[in-house]
Amino acid sequence: MARFARRGLVGLVAALALTPPALAQTPPNMLVIGTDVGSIPTLDPAALNARTVSELVSNLYDRLVQIDPIELQTVQPMLAESWEVAPDGSKITMKMREGVTFASGNPFTAEDAAWSIRRVIKMGQVGSTDIAQWGFTPENVDDLVRAEDDTTLVIELPEKVSTDLVLYSLAGSSLGIIDSKEAMEHEANGDLAADWLRGNAAESGPFSLVEWRPNDLVITQRNDNYWGGQPAMERVLMRHIPESGNLRLQLEGASVDVGHYVGASDLEALAENPDIEIQNTPGFGFYYIALNQKDPDLSKPKVREAFQHVLDWQGLAKANMRFNGVPWQSIIPQGMAGAPQALEDHYDFDPEKARALLAEAGYPDGLKKRLYPASDAHLLNVESLQATARLAGIDLEVIPGQHVPDFRARDFDVYMGNSGGRLPDPFATATHYAYNPDNSDEARLSGYYMWRTAWDVPELTALTERSKRETNPEARAEIFAEMDKLYRESDPSLIVFFQRIDPYVLRANVEGYTGHPTWTTRWDEVTKN
Length: 529
What we know:
Blueprint: H1 10-18, E1 30-35, H2 51-60, E2 65-67, E3 75-77, E4 80-85, E5 91-96, H3 110-123, H4 129-132, H5 141-144, E6 145-149, E7 152-156, H6 163-170, H7 180-184, H8 194-197, E8 207-213, E9 217-222, E10 235-240, H9 244-252, E11 258-259, H10 264-270, E12 276-291, H11 301-307, H12 313-318, E13 325-327, H13 351-360, E14 367-373, H14 379-390, E15 394-398, H15 404-408, E16 414-418, H16 426-433, H17 449-452, H18 458-469, H19 473-489, E17 494-507, E18 510-511, E19 527-528
């Protein structure tokens, strides 16, 4: 499926795949990441938005700009060496880095950048979500995104919008710059090489694809001619190790260098190991309880208020959520414009208060509903909610399984999950929690969590729109603070209890690997001592 034989690594790859990983430490020039390779549906940047595949694609493809993993509002050059914003904010003109070649040897030009952006918009898949919200469409993008010459890219904005938001979106993994000449050699029936790019790559980044075996293994090889300098790691492997206990053993045995998705109990044990480092990377999302407003019981404000008091979030903070989230009850991420200065525990755990609110709503004998976890990873939180809600007279029948599709289809009663955003700005979380421009079933706006719960508050949607257009930092902070206050006072259908943390587990000898809040973690500066 990938360019396996062409890389001339058949023997090496076979040996790596067949060697039991627990027998030896990883080589000094190889980084091995234990993760959920099964969650990778495609390698096409235009069709992805999940954590593991975003990290992989962010190393196969450079973007025009990148966001510093620590200073999250700092946009840094990448393939765009510099840029200028028109005085009226209607246009961004970018100067491309010269002397860059793709992995194929083809020279990189501004047309490759323009083609890659236009392709994402025309494909209209999940990868287009961030960039399309500024008003780009398949009909207007050819005129608005264009190369004026080999080193000049012009991006005209179809709507008034903060250009900082546009730059943030250009730093996302889905906006990786593809070698358009190589990709278009594989186009079939006008598909913009979609079928080929599903399992192959036309790379601009520091690593090239050797092989992808779905549900098993991804092997990459460094690009020795990478413009940013030769990476120290000759190869990076992503191994499919979905079982947390197994991953923990391989981290302890040094047959894996980095671990994703390690469970809470295994994280507790690894935290005591001096050979292990745990990076708690803040995320732009939250853990929440969602209440379907199409349900006549759950749509009552007093019932929604009752659910604010049935989760023992302080207990969870000391147990399952210690490495996965920090207590937070605002839809504005910590440290961002308009966010509270500290945790404000509006949703205190008080079963008796919840029981009284249910009685006020007309349910003196309580309620019975079905409780859907987003996935098995949420079962501990779900079981905790089930137990504590029972104290308030709420009987929740847990329906195990993977229920994200049910949430997107509005086919649930009560749901527990978490969100992730890719823009380092409160606007990103506002579009999830406070934006619903069309509440009809026919609109199918499943990208917006507020729509998924069928909760319609036009004032919140209007504030979200205002935040997108406003460029004054102080004014934006006031908008977000007003939004957060209105959200809380409206007894929301999405009750936020924790801000997300993504734990990355590293062997102590790994340096230069920094988990990125936007899931664009890079490998080109990784070394092993």
